[in-house]
Automatic annotation (TrEMBL):
Pfam families, per database record: Mo-co_dimer, Oxidored_molyb
Domain Moybdenum cofactor oxidoreductase dimerisation: 287-405
Source organism of this protein record: Mariniflexile aquimaris
Annotated protein name in UniProt: Sulfite oxidase
Domain Oxidoreductase molybdopterin-binding, first and last residues per copy: 88-259
Keywords, comma-separated and alphabetical: Metal-binding, Molybdenum, Oxidoreductase
Keyword Oxidoreductase: yes
PANTHER family with a match to the protein in the record: SULFITE OXIDASE, MITOCHONDRIAL, SULFITE REDUCTASE
Signal sequence extent: none
This protein's record includes keyword Nucleotidyltransferase: no
Family matches, as SUPFAM superfamilies: E set domains (SSF81296), Oxidoreductase molybdopterin-binding domain (SSF56524)
Length: 406
């Protein structure tokens, strides 16, 4: 058999195994063609996601959870939303991975292998709530372009890694440092290697917090590829876009980082409130820092049927960016009156806080349960949509579920 025919036969048998059936006229398949059945990858299998997850986009992959999938205290991989700005890098090898610290404000540019990071610096584990700045975007009117997230672009997993500040300190930080910016290995959608899909960062004070990690484990295991294997930045309380995946370089900057999606209107809000639909100049848009207070009812699932005369035990989580959640309430009369929920302390800073309440209904009929969190500065979630903005960020309106008592 000629080499080429042999290769073709081997490919065909691989295709057949993947499809689970003989490809009857396979020998006539033109070179370079792959069967259609293999061109439609199943994201649920590929990423190990729960069947109730919702695919918003496949180029790039963007997949969201639903409120009832987020019931666990620590979100399992199967229920974590996926947000990509570019193409997922291929062939990441933890054994060959390294991280370079550079930039105008580094004392000694330094490169660490992943093994060095793990052995040289103390390891820490924190539960961190990570929410996409665009979570809730689908409610804005006029609509904002971008993924139409409903409520499911948030998760709270447990992350293990080394503190970014320990690594920065080891390389040396000049006194004129103001910001860090990350660089990662994902490819721009255009496949142009000179373009980065995203390269964001945060001020030095945020980079230096205890919980800001260079993480290599998620929920006790290697981070799944889609969530940043083998090294990811974890920055609690701020838009998830600051938590860069597939990190191989961090620059210590002497000015606000100006990487992709740091400038223009990306991840920025109008510095002053604007009317719905109003055009806002780039220079009037301000970088989003701490995320606002928010909560989710994760049990029961919206649409639950309740027996008359029985109390319903509801539960969920609440979080408040850089702050803590101080109070949690629910309403069954469309926000006219509120009753308190019990709310736990976070297991560490930036972990979401679990709440519960026992709800009684006066009679048979349709109800909505609304949940409202208040942060430690006394700011509560708005009952209705907060300020419209051109990119549809920071919708922290109260979460509602429907129930029927019969
Ligand atoms: N390298 C890289 N990091 C990234 C992104 C990306 O596209 N590339 N997306 C960011 C955005 S916008 C979000 S919301 C989170 C999503 O994290 P997840 O996919 O692990 O849920 O990753 C952030 N980190
Ligand atoms: Mo995001």
């Amino acid at each position: 058999m000629k080499r080429r025919d042999f290769a073709k036969k081997a490919t065909l048998s691989t295709f057949a195994t993947l499809i689970g059936a003989e490809i009857v006229f396979g020998s006539r398949l033109l070179d370079g063609y792959s069967p259609l059945a293999l061109q439609d990858p199943d994201p649920f299998k590929m990423f190990n996601k729960h069947k109730d997850m919702i695919v918003l986009n496949d180029k790039p992959w963007n997949i969201e959870a639903q409120a009832h999938l987020l019931d666990d205290n620590i979100t399992p991989n199967s229920c974590m939303f996926i947000r990509n700005n570019g193409l997922v890098p291929e062939g990441n090898d933890a054994k060959k991975w390294s991280l370079t610290i550079d930039g105008e404000s580094v004392v000694n540019k330094k490169t660490y292998t992943l093994a060095e990071l793990k052995s040289k610096f103390e390891q820490h584990t924190y539960q961190v709530t990570i929410e996409c700045g665009g979570n809730g975007r689908s409610e804005f009117n006029p609509p904002a372009k971008g993924n139409q997230w409903t409520v499911g672009a948030v998760h709270c997993a447990s992350w293990t890694g080394v503190r970014l500040r320990d690594v920065l300190k080891d390389a040396g930080v000049k006194s004129n440092a103001v910001y860090i910016g990350y660089h990662a290995t994902d490819l721009h959608l255009s496949r142009d290697p000179n373009k980065e899909p995203i390269s964001r960062g945060c001020p030095m004070w945020k980079a230096n917090e205890d919980e800001t990690l260079l993480a290599f484990k998620m929920n006790g295991e290697d981070i799944p590829l889609i969530h940043g294997y083998p090294l990811r930045l974890i920055v609690g309380g701020w838009p998830a876009s600051v938590s860069g995946k597939w990190i191989n370089r961090i620059s210590i900057r002497n000015k606000v980082h100006d990487g992709a999606k740091m400038t223009g209107d990306a991840y920025r809000m109008p510095c002053k409130p604007v009317a719905p639909g109003e055009k806002v100049k780039d220079e009037d848009m301000c970088i989003i820092e701490s995320m606002p207070v928010k909560s989710l009812i994760t049990y029961p699932k919206s649409g639950a049927m309740i027996k008359e005369g029985k109390a319903l035990n509801i539960r969920g989580h609440a979080w408040a960016g850089d702050l803590e959640v101080a109070k949690m309430e629910y309403s069954i009369d469309f926000g006219s009156t509120w009753k308190s929920c019990s709310v736990e302390k976070p297991s560490n800073r930036f972990a979401w806080q679990h709440f519960k309440a026992s709800v009684n209904f006066p009679k048979k009929g349709y109800y909505e349960i609304w949940a409202r969190a208040t942060d430690s500065k006394g700011i509560a979630q708005p009952m209705l949509l907060p300020g419209w903005n051109p990119k549809g960020y920071l919708n922290n309106a109260c979460h509602r579920i429907a129930v029927k008592v019969s």
